[in-house]
Specification:
The complex is a heterotrimer of chains A (about 325), B (about 100) and C (about 300).
Chain A (H helix, E strand, L loop, with lengths): L14 E3 L18 E5 L11 E2 L3 E4 L2 E5 L4 E6 L3 E6 L5 H19 L3 E4 L1 E5 L2 E6 L6 H9 L5 E3 L2 E4 L9 E4 L4 E2 L3 H4 L3 E5 L9 E4 L8 E12 L11 E6 L3 H11 L3 H8 L1 H14 L1 E7 L6 H16 L7 E3 L2
Parallel strand pairs in A: 1-2, 2-7, 10-17, 17-19
Antiparallel strand pairs in A: 3-4, 4-5, 5-6, 6-7, 8-12, 9-10, 9-11, 12-13, 13-17, 14-16, 15-16, 18-19, 18-20
Helix pairs in contact in A: 1-5
Chain B lengths: L10 E4 L4 E6 L2 E6 L5 E5 H9 L8 E2 H11 L4 H18 L2 E3 L1
Antiparallel strand pairs in B: 1-5, 1-6, 2-3, 3-4
Chain C lengths: L12 E6 L5 H13 L17 E2 L3 H8 L8 H18 L7 E5 L18 E8 L2 H12 L4 H9 L4 E2 L9 E2 L3 H9 L5 E5 H6 L1 H11 L8 H11 L1 H12 L26 H17 L9
Parallel strand pairs in C: 1-3, 1-4, 2-3, 4-7
Antiparallel strand pairs in C: 5-6
Helix pairs in contact in C: 1-9, 4-5, 5-11, 6-11, 8-9
Classes of the chains: A alpha+beta (about 325), B alpha+beta (about 100), C alpha/beta (about 300).
Chain lengths: ~325, ~100, ~300
């Protein structure tokens, strides 16, 4: 499904890239006159005098170097240009994966936007994000929600505009759904093909039942998906716990789970602006924590619960309780 | 870890220079600008912070905090004293207050 | 007695290593209570505090230190970064006098490229817990729920056994078989204190003192402090704690409390003669080395 009428769905910046960014990113692409130019070229292995660094990245004077272990390297410059190199057998598919996660997030941060690590679904203009620790089922839950009337919006990277947070949390989508093979059936989506060409990486691109038509929306809800905290030995393997977050719990949730490429984003954005953005975001959106068992048999019940609470959140009535699901 | 024993005669003052803070819902959220750690104060803990002199040059006696808190919350004075001591110890450990 | 290196420069990590179901969580609880020396016991769910927070095999920790998502990488790629990640963490973590404790169930091994996953230059030493593999087989079966003892014996005996990996919330951890695991840690190049779980059970305060002394911790010979730590971590309290707080470490498939029973020598009631023979055949030599009986009857 191609995205139409791009002029009516503005993106915060446009990209002229010399490789295919995938279907979800199409609204961002321009052949000429784009805000950001992305080209293959020479990328150094390190920066001369990094102000800050981590294992897979360095940052200095508005330039960020990203070094992925598959051999793809990115140099993101001043929010307006990006060069990439592919070494050690890294493929275009590898490039696309790391571009639409880490590199694009860093580019967004350099341009004054906040890259969130989240899956998301939409309902008209409203966007609901799913956040949590890795492998807690964010993507699969988003796909399953798409089969329950909430079109798929984002898989891993949700770009937030922090400038308008006093009135709304405008966010943008750019990536396609990726799930593990075992989640295809549970998440009711159709396999497209492998994300990376190696058999050692088994995630698949997949098509959800419904995809959002718009490229942007208003972030309304953030649901933190947690795994089961075991109680007593009898019935708790089937129960779920829902909690409405407030105050410092919201901040903790966003910082711990929802900032994409967190150490790099902190280096690029700065701690103080990030604090202000996180506080403003926390005031703007509803945040909930849903804890449910990790076992496949409970996946559907968990998604139904999310759908119910999104619907309640939209109508302004969220009930929180520990409930046993039959 | 306890650095010094906190008595009613101990004094405390704010040292918020390395922090930014803002209210969010009912919590006062702090961030250590250098380290990036977040902390939150709410309810009685927030009240203790508010009762400590805002002017960071000025000292407040721990006994004053205990007296005020006991008046505002229905709590046994001994427990209140102990809880305040634990809180102040934690606040000092992260650098939000200084004790003498 | 061997002692760990003192904490200095980048050398700051104390590994708390063991094959699964060998008392690792209990030992961390003992250490946490010993170090805190507070009136209130440290609860099971407090083991996620800053002191013990490094989960070397955890994706959140890897992602937050590396800056990229381990979930975008193959297991080999993520593993190739782990030595750099642990070095970076050791270097950057706030200066402390006590070691940074880091739990692991992995064999003490290297990446496919030959880089040690437990680098000597960041290590003060390791406390390695060892337990009778017959008891491990029983405990493992209960932890995994419905699997049965045949599966846990096969797991103990297989060179390729592991934890975590693609799609799992933990990174891939290779265990080797039980004997291989033991040999990898007891033969490591840095100081290692090997502690038999059965000895720890029989004289907890004494062995906690030896562990504290090995790690150069203050108060290692303070009997009262050791005994308080033991009391706070006592099994009954563990099970009570677990029931009240809900211990999150338990496998979602398990129907039994995490700390099922502290008793050693339980295996005779559960394993078949054939299962016992399999374990002895695979691990008899290592068992004998560490004082475990190789008799086929309990």
């Amino acid at each position: 499904m191609k995205v139409r009428a791009v002029a009516a769905q503005q993106v915060p910046f446009t990209i002229d890239a010399d490789f295919d960014l995938g279907e979800a990113a199409a609204p961002w692409c321009r052949a000429h006159g784009a805000d950001v130019v992305v080209r293959r070229g020479a990328v150094p292995l390190s920066l001369p005098r990094p102000e800050s660094r981590g294992v897979a990245w360095q940052h200095a004077a508005g330039r960020t170097l990203i070094l992925t272990p598959c051999g793809a390297r990115f140099l993101v410059k001043g929010g307006s240009a990006m060069r990439y190199a592919l070494d050690g057998g890294a493929s275009l598919a590898d490039l696309r994966l790391f571009f639409l996660g880490t590199a694009l997030g860093v580019l967004a941060a350099q341009r004054g936007l906040l890259p969130l690590k989240a899956s998301a679904v939409a309902n008209g203009e409203d966007v609901h994000a799913l956040v949590g620790m890795p492998t807690r089922g964010k993507s699969a839950s988003a796909a399953a929600l798409a089969a329950r009337g909430y079109p798929f919006f984002a898989d891993d990277l949700l770009i937030l505009d922090p400038t308008g947070l006093d009135t709304e949390a405008r966010c943008y989508r750019c990536d396609d759904l990726k799930v593990w093979p075992k989640a295809l059936e549970l998440a009711d989506c159709e396999k497209v093909g492998p994300v990376r060409p190696t058999s050692k990486y088994r995630k698949l691109y997949a098509v959800p039942r419904q995809r959002a038509a718009r490229v942007s929306g208003r972030l309304r809800t953030v649901v933190y998906l947690a795994s089961f905290k075991r109680g007593d030995a009898s019935g708790d393997r089937h129960s779920m716990h829902l909690e409405r977050l407030s105050g410092s719990n919201k901040v903790e949730t966003v910082i711990e789970a929802a900032i994409h490429s967190r150490p790099i984003t902190i280096a690029v954005v700065g701690r103080l602006p990030l604090f202000q953005w996180v506080m403003a975001l926390s005031r703007r959106v509803e945040m909930l924590r849903l804890t449910r068992p990790e076992i496949p048999a409970m996946f559907g019940a968990g998604v139904n619960r999310i759908a119910a609470l999104l619907s309640a959140a939209e109508s302004g009535a969220v009930q929180t309780c520990k409930d046993a699901v039959p | 870890m306890k650095n010094m024993k906190i008595t009613p005669e101990s004094r405390v003052r704010r040292t918020p220079d390395n922090f930014v803070n803002a209210m969010l819902d009912d919590d006062l959220v702090f961030m250590d600008v250098a380290e990036g750690q977040f902390y939150g104060l709410r309810e009685a803990g927030l009240r203790v912070w508010q009762l400590i002199e805002e002017d960071s040059g000025a000292w407040t006696q721990v006994q004053e905090l205990t007296t005020a808190l006991c008046a505002e919350f229905r709590v046994d004075e001994e427990k209140c004293r102990r809880d305040i001591a634990v809180l102040l110890d934690e606040l000092q450990a992260v650098g939000l207050v200084e004790l003498s | 007695m061997t002692r760990a290196h003192p904490v200095s420069g980048q050398r700051r990590i104390a590994w708390l290593a063991s094959y699964p179901r060998s008392g690792n969580t209990w030992t961390r609880l003992l250490l946490a209570n010993f170090l805190s020396a507070a009136a209130e016991p440290v609860g099971i769910n407090d083991l996620g505090s800053a002191m013990f927070s490094a989960l070397y095999h955890g994706r959140p920790w890897f992602d937050s230190v590396a800056g990229i998502s381990s979930s975008d990488c193959t297991e080999d790629e993520a593993e190739s970064l782990r030595p750099a990640v642990v070095r970076f963490w050791a270097q950057e973590t706030q200066r402390k006098a006590t070691p940074l404790f880091c739990k692991s169930h992995e064999a003490c091994r290297a990446t496919p490229a030959g880089e040690p996953l437990f680098p000597d230059d960041v290590t003060v030493g390791a406390v390695y817990l060892i337990r009778n593999p017959l008891d491990i087989a029983v405990s493992w079966a209960f932890y995994l729920g419905d699997k049965g003892f045949a599966d846990s014996v096969a797991y103990l005996n297989a060179r390729t056994s592991g934890l975590g990996g693609a799609g799992n919330h933990e990174l891939r951890q290779r265990l080797f078989d039980w004997s291989g695991h033991v040999e990898s840690w007891t033969g490591a190049s840095f100081p290692v204190l090997t502690v038999r779980y059965e000895d720890l059970l029989a004289d907890t305060a004494g062995w906690l003192g030896k562990i504290a002394s090995f790690l150069r911790l203050d108060g290692a010979s303070d009997r009262r402090r050791l005994e308080q730590a033991v009391a706070h971590s006592a099994f009954a309290r563990l099970q009570e704690n677990e029931g009240r707080e809900g211990f999150h470490k338990n496998s979602p498939h398990s129907r039994t409390p995490f700390f099922r029973s502290g008793v050693a020598g339980d295996w005779g009631r559960h394993l078949s003669a054939a299962q016992v023979r399999d374990v002895l055949a695979a691990h008899g030599a290592t068992m004998a080395r560490f004082g475990y009986s190789c008799r086929a009857t309990g």
